[in-house]
Amino acid sequence: RYKQYWTIRAMRERAAHHPNKSVGIRDAISVFDEWLENYEEPSSQKKQLHRQEWEEFRRLCQSDANKHSYGKDPTKEELKRARDDLLNGQKLLIQLLSNQRQSSSRNVQFPLTSFVALFGGPGMHGYGSHEIGDDRGISNVHIDGDEGLEELIGATKTSKLMLGKVDKVEVTYNRADELAMVAIIRSKQSNTLESLWARSADTASLGCSKKRQRIDSKPKEEEKNRPEWTCNTCTFVHVGKSKIDFLTCELCGSTRLAEGAARK
């Protein structure tokens, strides 16, 4: 929040001086102008709060969670390490969800770097939200049901978990011990044939395999039609509605090139 005013003012200036103003840019200028007109200088109490937030931000930047961070010009080894952290985080989340489906609520060892690579820092995300408790030792991740899981691990892997109808997934993480546990909150409609099928997936006969293939094929088709773009620098694929408008790569920080632009 301590950068909010200058960020919005800079965005307004960039939009106002854009050489090819679209309808969306003009609408954005109106929104920025309205916000700037209603802006009030923060009180001394709020400024103190902003300073505390800045100190907390710097403390988090220096924590073990950023042990695998890198600068603007990352090496191939650093990019590979970042990809490995993300893939490991996805694998461990799937393990947590599988354990929960099998009525096993045991904790799973979850490296902090993999946790941060998957869920990001505290705040709102495309999958839901990540909050840090008052004791600073516990992270609470709130995943918005099936759509949130698809943002994190993809539609195909989500469907293969056979969780049925899920309203929310709660992940509790102890950063000191690097242990995670998960709770699946189902909707009132979960007692349907869909959820019964999910519970009996492990004992399904071979005669049902073709049906399962047809069920799995639908998410695969949906995944193909999901919006995505690929970074021209590190080839990281950004999937989902929340990432389609990113102007920089989430992994390496490179500026996104326009469609059809030649790679240097």
Describe the 3D structure.
There is one protein chain. This protein has helices at residues 4-16, 23-37, 44-61, 76-101, 112-119, 145-153, 155-160, 193-199, 209-224; strands at 108-109, 123-124, 128-132, 138-143, 166-174, 179-186, 228-230, 237-239. The chain has 264 residues and is α+β, with helices and mostly antiparallel strands. A 6-stranded antiparallel beta sheet has the order 1-6-5-4-3-2. Strands 7-8 form a two-stranded antiparallel sheet. β7 (228-230) and β8 form a beta hairpin. The protein is globular. Residues 190-199 and 202-206 have low confidence and may be disordered.
Protein topology:
Layout lengths: L3 H13 L6 H15 L6 H18 L14 H26 L6 E2 L2 H8 L3 E2 L3 E5 L5 E6 L1 H9 L1 H6 L5 E9 L4 E8 L6 H7 L9 H16 L3 E3 L6 E3 L25
Antiparallel strand pairs: 1-6, 2-3, 3-4, 4-5, 5-6, 7-8
Helix pairs in contact: 1-2, 4-5
Distance between the termini: 36 Å
**What is the helical fraction, as a range of percent?**
40-55%
Low-pLDDT residue spans: 190-199, 202-206
Total helices: the number is 9
Mean pLDDT: 80
Provide the spatial order of strands within the biggest beta sheet.
1-6-5-4-3-2
Number of strands: 8
Broad structural category: alpha+beta
Assess the beta-strand content as a share of residues. Answer: 5-15%
User: N-to-C SSE series?
Assistant: HHHHEHEEEHHEEHHEE
The major sheet is characterized as:
6 strands, antiparallel
Shape: globular
Radius of gyration based on Cα positions: 22 Å
